[in-house]
Amino acid sequence: MSLTPEQNAEIDELRSNPSETLRVVSEGMEKHLYHAIPVLDHGFVRVIDYMGDDAAICQAARVSYGKGTKSVQNDEGLIRYLMRHWHSTPFEMCEIKLHVKLPVFVARQWIRHRTANVNEYSARYSILDREFYIPAPENIAAQSAVNNQGRGGALEGEEAARVLEILKADSARSYDNYQAMISQDGQEGLARELARMNLPANIYTQWYWKVDLHNLLHFLRLRADAHAQYEIRVYADAICNVVADWVPAAYRAFEDYRMGAVTMSAQMVDCLRRMIKGETVDQDTSGMSAREWREFKEMIDS
């Protein structure tokens, strides 16, 4: 993980000068403020600011009750009800602002979640650092034979070494050419906004990402899932740990009703009912495609 000296100085300054506030704070989140959580080889996630806690969700749901009930159990029960029945608005009352350092190809997946406010480091004005994501050997994998979007088994031995050497060499060569093209030392050179197009997608970028809790949980449901690409999943896993400390009741409900739950089609429900009654059901009698049947079997057999 690489923080610049300026970023480290900013963190030290912020943590050494706490401010009193009249607003509600989450004790679990306070310990995460400004700390950088390492992700991948050079990346990180750090909390810059946040608003709200579990009580804020309940307050929004009840509106006229002020802070809510005095019973923690009642508050958690309400949060579970809201999560179970897909009531999203109360969760939007909590927000978080993150500073994230991540490879460009991960950022391009991440930005598909269009419900956040984003401000990214600009390579039009600044020169990007010489930092690239190079996968660990165990994360060098072949193309999946059954999923065009996924990985198969890990490459091993000489093949893994060959691929890693290509990634390292191409990254270094691209950055060398990037530097050579940029105007410096009296040379006219190429504009930064044009020179950046020669950089590979594994170079690191940074951004501030601000999002409400409802949309953050949607992001985590997709990106912390076992089927998500490893490189974005590790960022989602790091954020999950933060959210679990920030809004523990909401996160427990999220684990139960989103992460630990499954969604079945009407056909799947019908097949399950037939199986419970003792009927033998296979793909031919299920009415499902081969892929749907495989997913259904994974649900009930795991």
TrEMBL record:
It catalyses: dUMP + (6R)-5,10-methylene-5,6,7,8-tetrahydrofolate + NADPH + H(+) = dTMP + (6S)-5,6,7,8-tetrahydrofolate + NADP(+). One of its GO terms (molecular function) is flavin adenine dinucleotide binding. The active site is at R223 (involved in ionization of n3 of dump, leading to its activation). Binds 4 FAD per tetramer. Each FAD binding site is formed by three monomers. DUMP binds at Q109, W110, I111, R112, E120, Y121, S122, A123, R124, R196, R223. One of its GO terms (biological process) is methylation. FAD binds at T89, R112, H113, R114, E120, D212, L213, H214, H218. Its cofactor is FAD. Pathway: Pyrimidine metabolism; dTTP biosynthesis. InterPro entries: Thymidylate_synthase_ThyX, Thymidylate_synthase_ThyX_sf. It is an enzyme of class 2 (transferase). Its EC number is 2.1.1.148. Transmembrane segments: none annotated. Keywords: FAD, Flavoprotein, Methyltransferase, NADP, Nucleotide biosynthesis, Transferase. Catalyzes the reductive methylation of 2'-deoxyuridine-5'-monophosphate (dUMP) to 2'-deoxythymidine-5'-monophosphate (dTMP) while utilizing 5,10-methylenetetrahydrofolate (mTHF) as the methyl donor, and NADPH and FADH(2) as the reductant. Belongs to the thymidylate synthase ThyX family. NCBIfam families: thyX. HAMAP family: ThyX. Homotetramer. This is Flavin-dependent thymidylate synthase. It comes from Shimia abyssi. The gene is thyX.
